[in-house]
Amino acid sequence: MKTQATGAIAAAKAGMDEKTARKYVTAGKLPSELKVEHTWRTRPDPFEAHWEQVREKLADNPGLEAKTLFEDLQRRFPGTFSDGQLRTLQRRVKRWRALEGPSKETFFPQLHRPGELAQSDFTHMGKLGITIAKQPFDHLIYHFVLTYSNWETGSICYSESFESLSEGLQAALWELGGVPQAHQTDRLTAAVHNALHQQEFTQRYQALLRHYGLSGRKTQAGSPNENGDVEQSNHRLKRALRQALLLRGSFDFESIAEYRRFLRELFARLNRGRRERLREEQRMLHPLPQRRLESCTRLEVRVSRASTIRVSNNTYSVASRLIGESLHVELFADRLDLYYAQKRVETLPRLRGKCRHLINYRHVIDQLQRKPGAFENYRYREEMFPGSCFRLAYDELKERHAPQVAAREYLKILALAAKESEAAVAAALRELCGRQPITAQAVETLIHVEPIALPVAEIGVAAVDLASYDRLLSMEAMAHAI
Q1: For 373-410, how does the pLDDT look when each residue is reduced to its tens digit (9 = 90+)?
Q2: Residue 329 bridge partners (DSSP)
Q3: Which helix (DSSP H) or strand (DSSP E) does residue 156 occupy?
């Protein structure tokens, strides 16, 4: 039988008052068994009289928020509810959603096996603010991820075209050194037909998959979570890239090549902790084919009477001598190679987007000189001003001459830029502006007779006045003394 002394000692060891301990001993129950569940309200429910109306609205439209319902009650029953009672309704609506509301979307963790699946996606990088030579660099990254090891790589591209997909996927596979069983994308138009089409994938994408022995998979419409590994990797990549740029101290690169090297180093760092699982994957990969497929689309286009061609819903100018001829076009992710009679005649940068145009004044200047009256209303007239000084020169000519005369004189200046040097003509125009009337003859004279020496800016660095620094220190010392 326990004595009072032993009971006091046991209560002290348990950190409990002796009277409390005696109560539990007398009852013969544990503290948890004596605890009474709090099921009653401490104050009346202000929404009890109107809850059924609220409940019916939630049942009809579960997306309604508690705040919306509260504001509706305040409008219908003025003076009944104060703003401070919103939280009470929010708690009750939350409880209704958990006990009676509709089921919520459930995510089912997937079992990934080595060498089985790769996912890829295009992710836009514009919000990072990366620049090339101080100019904004609007681009995407084709992102490739193995779902088992999370090994990843990527390449710079400019659109979600088939050429970008083909080039990015092949680069990733050759860097990996093998081919997984399947490749999954979201519903890219470059790879996946719409639901009404008989074929699941486009013909070109099927050919790419066959070449590498890949099984193609796609996500369901409106279900980006099915491509969840690469989607999450997109966010992690952008965060890691931003941190690396902040650590670097600059978001600007001298060239795209330098930016590519920076990305390769970043991917190498991200993959360091995945080497062991990557080795498991590599043992299960299929061998690569003997060669890559060309990542280009071949087209035949005819040069229009406007000296332009249409490729992928964009307009490009070509030399006017090719009007009426058919050109063979090799369309790559970032450029167009134009061939005539099996000879490459032009390489043009590929435009991004649709309904855009790239017009080179050198292609049409000789014909514009023959038809100066067409210049004023030419659809692509703005492309005929290769710099601001050219536009200022044309405006000055229009102030002094009739439109046709101004156009004729300006086209002579533009022809000089095409035949001689655009930079030299631009320098001559800057020299003439505000000093003497601009004419083609004056520009030509400056180019040939009086070569313009471009001024070199001199930067002077003043000597540092150390006395001012001493005065600053003495003022700070006086301030502390006060």
Answers
A1: 999 999 999 999 999 999 999 999 999 999 999 999 99
A2: 299, 338
A3: strand 152-157
Give the distance between the most distant pair of CA atoms in the chain: 124
Residue 328 CB coordination number (10 Å)? 17
* Residue 145: strand pairing partners: 119, 152
Among 283, 287, 276, CA closest to 150: 276
pLDDT at 372: 92
The predicted structure's pLDDT at residue 38? 62
Is residue 454 predicted with pLDDT exceeding 50?
Answer: no
Asked if residue 122 lies in contact with residue 156, where contact means CB atoms within 8 angstroms, the answer is no
pLDDT digits (tens, 9 = 90+) for 48-70: 888 999 999 999 998 899 999 99
Radius of gyration in angstroms for the set of CA atoms belonging to the chain, rounded to a whole number: 37
Partners of residue 297 on adjacent β-strands: 331
C-alpha dihedral sign at 280, 285, 287, 293: negative
Question: Cα dist. 260→13, 119, 141, 153, 348 in Å?
Answer: 67, 21, 11, 12, 21
Q: Which run of H or of E encompasses 118?
A: strand 117-124
- Cα separation, 387 vs 409, whole angstroms: 17
Other C-beta atoms closer than 10 Å to the C-beta of 452 total: 14
